[in-house]
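Suppose you are handed a protein chain with no further information: no name, no annotation, nothing but its sequence. What can you learn? This example shows the usual starting point.
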Amino acid sequence: MTFTDTPHAPQPAAGDRRRWFALAIVMTAAFMDLVDVTIVNIAIPSIQRDEGATFSQIQWITAGYALAFAAGLVTGGRLGDIHGRKRIFLVGIGGFTVASALCGLAVNPEMLVASRILQGAMAALMVPQVLSIVHATFPAHERGKVFGLFGAVVGLGAVSGPLLGALLTEWNLFGLEWRPIFLINLPVGIAGLVLGRRFITESKAPRALKLDLVGVALVTLGLLMLLYPLTRGRELGWPAWGYVSMAGALAVFGALVAYERAKGARDGSPLIELSLFRVKSFAAGIAVQTVFGIGLGVFFLVWTLYMQIGLGWSVLRAGLTGLPFSVAVSAAAGMSVQLLVPRFGRKVLQAGALVMAAGVLIYLWEAERYGQAITSWQMALPLVVMGAGMGLIVAPLTDAVLSEVPREHAGSASGLINTVQQMGNALGLGLVSVVFFGVIDEELAPAEVGPAFVDGFQHALGWVAAVLGVIFLLMFALPKRPAQHVEGGQETPVAVTKEPELVS
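A reasonable first move is to predict its three-dimensional structure. Written in structure tokens, the prediction is:
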């Protein structure tokens, strides 16, 4: 999420209660987006069984959303600046609601994948407006309280999403199996659409930038050329065109850099502000966000398949097993920002990477020792350690990345951080074909499926631990202590971004 300073935007008077209704509406939309991605992940095995989806289609149900979300985030923010944040927010929440209905009514895996891509695109219109609307609606002295509320919503979404998804799938409401995980968005989205029209105040950026549609097209094309062969390669026997496509993706990204450099010189409104990469801490932070997204994309999908297919657990048991992780993330995130980072700076983030890696290695040891006999309570320790490590990273990372960025580029930088994290997530989901399914035989007898998935999970955990080691090293390029920025006599962050989603 990004916001842009809007000094000329009309703000409700301090005593106007309408702004608190507007806050509740946009926070609900943010919560709906967070819960939606975590709900889907826990229900993936049920969708695979009921719809007969291939494993590559299962990857695209999650990766397609992340890809569309990533490709549209910056554009969504720009559209809000140009055409009005309220207007684009309402278009986004309305489209997200329609896409959720299409997901819930999908008659085959292909329709579900297409609907998820549409849902991700609509989220890219809706999500960037949330904090922009908050910034335009609340005076500076109230924003600290509001951003604190937003952090609580993020934490609640992370904790409640997997459990809500598990309950809705387990209850099999009206015989609809997994479909209520999408259909539950309909009443929430309709209410947000109706109330948003009434209570949200319109705002625009005083000097809006132009859209860079060519940049968006090049980013999307490059990612598709990289991700499609990764997800379908194993299924198709790794054909030669797949390697050509992945090599061609590098050429597309090279063309993107050249085009963005020329566009920046021509009209000053590129999709990607390349001058930001001259800032050492920002370039390193972007690398950290991308690699972190890859690790999360691999872990969460593989973890779900491991518990429900490898171990044969019910969706409810899998959802409850994940609660210690979600609670640890939320608790450590709050402690990291409020107590640890102000005192120890960058070392807290590096400690988070090492702690999370330690949790992964403990999980790997337990998975090898107990095999299919492992229990939920035995998983609690590694999950708490992993969650604590992740919480130490996700909350302060954005401030660390932005701390040396020039103030006039803060909005572009924060949007780019969210975008690359989602792109990394999509890439990680694509890599599941290599690091997980790549070590599982295609023809397995029913009795061999469980042990094969357990072995695949252990192999994937080794990759996740290696990714966290890379993140630890990259963090040495971050500033030792994030700089503070002053606004209206109070220290505030130059930009606020959505906390990285736990699952996509």
